Amino acid sequence: MESIQHDNETISLKNIIVNYLLHWKLIFSIGGCSVLIAFLYLFLTPKTYEMMTKVQLLEDKGTTGAGLNIGDASGLMKSFGLGGISGTGFSLDDERVKLSSTSLLKEVVLKLGMNVSYYKPYAYKYQMYEDIPLLLSADSETLENQEYTVDISVDIDKSGSVKVKTESEVSKNTFKFASLPAIIKTEEGTFVLSYRKGVVKPLSMDLSISPAIAVAEDLSESMVFEEFSKNSNVLEISCTDYEKKRGVDLLSTLVEFYNNQEDSVKKTESGKSIRFLDERLKVIEDELSRVEYKIEQYKLQNKMTSIESDVLFYAEQMKELQVKIIELEAQGHLIDLLDDYIKDPGNKYNLVPITLASGTGENTSNPVTTYNEALLERIKLMQSTKTENPLIGQINLQVDQLRESVFLSIENAKKSLALTLGDLKGKEKVLLDKMGVVPTLEREYVDFRRQQEIYQALYLILLQKKEDFIHSIGDSKERARVVEMAYVKQKKVAPRMLYAALFVFIFTLVIPAVYLFTKEQIFVLWNEYKRLSHSK
């Protein structure tokens, strides 16, 4: 029984193949059409290549996690990274978002003039990049506010007179000029049309100018940013284009503008920190001068010459205790500086210094670190999205809430410092009381000297930090180091002979089969319809 069924299936398949081959004229006709379509694809599609560059993304440690220390002052407040972004790691994904951001690509588009398309005469939508006879430009206001693409048709006759037709979604216009350059005023803005090098006539050419942001969005979607490997900071950036130089220029300019942008951000943040440090240095310098003047007047008033020798014996006994007091009071002043910085409304969305919870000595995640990380997320979001994005409002709310927790952290740190400092001063008082015979003027002098040392320590800390920021501004390093210059791969990506062959093969086999099957089914349905009609 199974053998009979198998024979029937074989006979049925043979009948289908034979019936298919009987329509060889149809098959050859469709095959000829498919060959023609494939030929047009190979002939009309410009040779497209892939361009690639490799860059190594380097972490800028110039102002990141820089500790504050004064050498002999026991490394006071090493965790106080003023203006730095300590506590945040380098992320290759973050840098990839920056590189593919529409704001950065928009600058590249305007630099290379890729928002203007020059269509090659007698070619289908071929956008030229080199040897362009005309130049279309616009002022900065037009480039910034343009919303629609403007198509421009230019006809230059033998006498040099020019006829220009413009068309966009909002208007159509026709202009006539005696010669070039010419100013074209439309609803979309003002454009200037001129010869790129010399006069070319006669000439007929189509152009279009698109919003730079729209071109940047298309590039962001078409360009590829891939990690070279999981364990490296090397990024492969590639794009495809039939104009080789345009693709190479796009990759090279993108890396150049990215480095310029990162350098500009670094200098801006360092500049803000330097201005803040200058203000603090001026205040501390005034306080130091005031204390030194008091010491001078105290010596003159009490006719003191070598008080250091007189109190050396007692100072040695209290050395360890006083060092701790100096460190804690200096730390308290640093926390006050941090408090002033955070409470300044002008620094609301600026990265803030990071401090310990003071007296406990525990170096754990704290609200300042969380607040800094939220600010970094806000900066990245502002760079990669538009200002009307609802995510901006959400991140602003989150930053404001975290800011309140920072205020609470500072208040707790102050209270903890006050308790610890009070305990140490109590111990100091016990030692001073034990001296018994120490004159009151010596005790007052020790207090003056302590204040002087505190302000000297603070001054040295902030001065060193200022020098670090100045050095970081002058020491300009590329964030993206080019490992492999932009180049054109030898193997073209379009048109592909294999795709054309597959199209011919599939089109020739499938279309006739579909046509014959559909025709047969329609014929069967028609006969069934007539049979039912006659039976009624």
Can you summarize this structure?
It is built from 13 helices and 13 strands. The protein has 536 residues and is an alpha+beta fold. Mean pLDDT is 79; it is low at 1-9, 64-88 and 356-365.
Count of individual helical segments: 13
| Integer-rounded radius of gyration | 39 Å
Strand content: 15-25%
- pLDDT average, as an integer? 79
What sort of overall outline do the alpha carbons produce when their principal axes are compared?
elongated
Query: Helical content, roughly?
Result: 55-70%
Largest sheet: 6 strands, antiparallel
Distance between the termini: 41 Å
SSE order in H/E notation? HHEHHEEEHEEEEEEHEEHHHHHHEH
Number of domains: 3
Structural class determined from secondary elements: alpha+beta
What's the total count of β strands? 13
Q: Ranges with pLDDT <50 over ≥5 residues?
A: 1-9, 64-88, 356-365
Strand order of the largest sheet: 3-2-10-5-6-7
Keywords, separated by commas or semicolons:
536 residues; alpha+beta; six-stranded antiparallel beta sheet
What would you say this structure looks like, in words?
It is a single chain. By secondary structure, the chain is α+β, with helices and mostly antiparallel strands. Strand 2 (116-119) and strand 3 form a beta hairpin. The strands form 3 sheets. Strands 3-2-10-5-6-7 form a 6-stranded antiparallel sheet, with no helix packed on it. A 4-stranded antiparallel sheet has the order 11-12-1-13. Strands 4-9-8 form a 3-stranded antiparallel sheet. Helix 9 crosses helix 12. Helix content is 58%, strand content 16%. The longest helix is centred in the middle third of the chain and has 59 residues, at 244-302.
